[in-house]
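Have a close read of the entry that follows and walk me through the local backbone shapes. See right below:
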Amino acid sequence: VTLPKVIRQTDHNQKRLCVQANEKGGTAVANLWCSHVGDYYVNDNIPFIARRIALEYTIKAEYDSDEDAYYFDDFVAVSGNSTIRLFFTEEKHIEQARLDLNAFGCENELFLLRKIVAVNIPKECNYKPVKDYLDKGEANEEWVYEESCLSHEY
């Protein structure tokens, strides 16, 4: 099932991709920054809410002049990157987890208000040690995680 997505213009080089997603029975809106490259758009940030999309995915969008907005049409190319989201109950574990993930070569972004860390697993990264680390933290009840867009095998 393809979720409705919309890109709204913010400047000459980037567009904001608003994704409507069904999250636990409700609707949530996620903003993704995309660069306009030729006829397509490339995702420039790690998604916090949107599923099935990762950093550097290329998408096709169509312009709706009535709403002055670009709507998602299709995926053009996947980057091979994966997106993982960690959900923390206590802030005290966030900083160390982010440092550890950086040590694996996985950049990440923090949404402190919701205690979510969105993690990019680069295409070149060996996912097995990262997954082992994520499983250990989850077993220790430091976080719960989800593989919201998994391109890697393990």
Q: What stands out?
A: Strands lie at 5-9, 14-23, 26-37, 40-43, 58-64, 69-77, 82-87, 108-111, 116-121, 144-149. The chain has a mean pLDDT of 82.
